[in-house]
Amino acid sequence: SQQGEEDPQALSIQEGENATMNCSYKTSINNLQWYRQNSGRGLVHLILIRSNEREKHSGRLRVTLDTSKKSSSLLITASRAADTASYFCATDAASARQLTFGSGTQLTVLP
Amino acid sequence: ETGVTQTPRHLVMGMTNKKSLKCEQHLGHNAMYWYKQSAKKPLELMFVYSLEERVENNSVPSRFSPERPNSSHLFLHLHTLQPEDSALYLCASSQDTANEKLFFGSGTQLSVL
Questions:
Q1: Of B6, B55, B102, the CB nearest to A97
Q2: CA dihedral defined by A43, B35, A27, A84, rounded to 10 degrees?
Q3: What's the Cα-to-Cα distance from A55 to each of A18, A35, A47, A66, rounded to whole Å?
Q4: Mean pLDDT of B22-44
Q5: Sign (positive/negative) of CA torsion A95, A98, A103, A107?
Q6: β-pairing, A10-14 with A105-110?
Q7: What is the predicted pLDDT for the residue at A1?
Q8: Which residues, other chains included, contact B53 with Cβ-Cβ below 8 Å and sequence gap of 6+?
Q9: Is the pLDDT of residue B11 over 90?
């Protein structure tokens, strides 16, 4: 089974609302990263949080990490139509040599 | 722009064709990667290159052959592909293989007929 799994698979909200996406993983990690992908394009790195950190902010993004629950959340505040994209978490497991990506959350922000 | 350029953006090929995907980065990164993205599935790492070595995923069929002729370029040579190989192929680079902050190209959408 995959290391990182996002929840929900799809999320639809109105512009101006906040969007929260969750990621759960199974094994100990060095870091967890969030990426964004617009349709038919490559992934863009958003934020990295290390295993000894609990929260990070970048603009309208807020990421939390709970290593005891092996979970992370990505919060996008005051969403915009341009935030419509797929969002992926990627884990750098302590035992692995590679990043492992989840299947993503498809976020739709309605104008 | 992420600094990673992939060509072509779209490719249609028959099962008997031979083609190559090209990736170029001028970020000075040591590590380069090939990923496969199929619909409704997580990204699958295919190959990793550091400057010194190639790390292969053992589950990648031999009909996919990577090549890194220099530090800036990465190729994926394709031959006798199957329809199930149709997917978006993404190239990425990072400063090193420490699995931090990958920069992705826009991908090549491959269709195998």
A1: B55
A2: 20
A3: 17, 16, 11, 9
A4: 92
A5: positive
A6: parallel
A7: 42
A8: none
A9: yes
- Identify the pLDDT of residue B53: 81
Structure-block tokens of residue A19: 């969007």
Q: Which helix (H) or strand (E) covers residue A48, if one does?
A: strand A43-50
Query: What pLDDT is attached to residue B79?
Result: 93
pLDDT of residue B58: 66
How far does the CA of residue A96 sit from the closest CA of chain B (Å)? 10
Structure tokens at B43: 């990204």
- The Cα A81–Cα A83 span in angstroms is 5
| Chain B contacts in chain A segment 63-92 (CB below 8 A) | 88, 92
Bridge partners of A22?
Answer: A7, A73
Q: Which residues contact A68 (CB under 8 A, 6 or more apart)?
A: none
- Position A68: which residue type? S
Chain position carrying tokens 């931090």: B100
Residues of A in contact with B105 (CB under 8 A): 42
Mutate to test the interface with A, among B27, B36, B43 (most CBs of A within 10 A): B43
In angstroms, rounded to a whole number, what is the distance separating the alpha carbons of residues A4 and A2?
Answer: 6
* Under-50 pLDDT residues of chain A: 1
Six-digit token string for B58: 């053992």
Q: Which pLDDT tens digit goes with each residue over B49-106? A: 988 788 777 689 999 999 999 999 999 999 999 999 999 999 999 998 777 899 999 9
pLDDT (0 to 100) of residue B8: 97
In contact, B111 and B11? CB cutoff 8 Å: yes
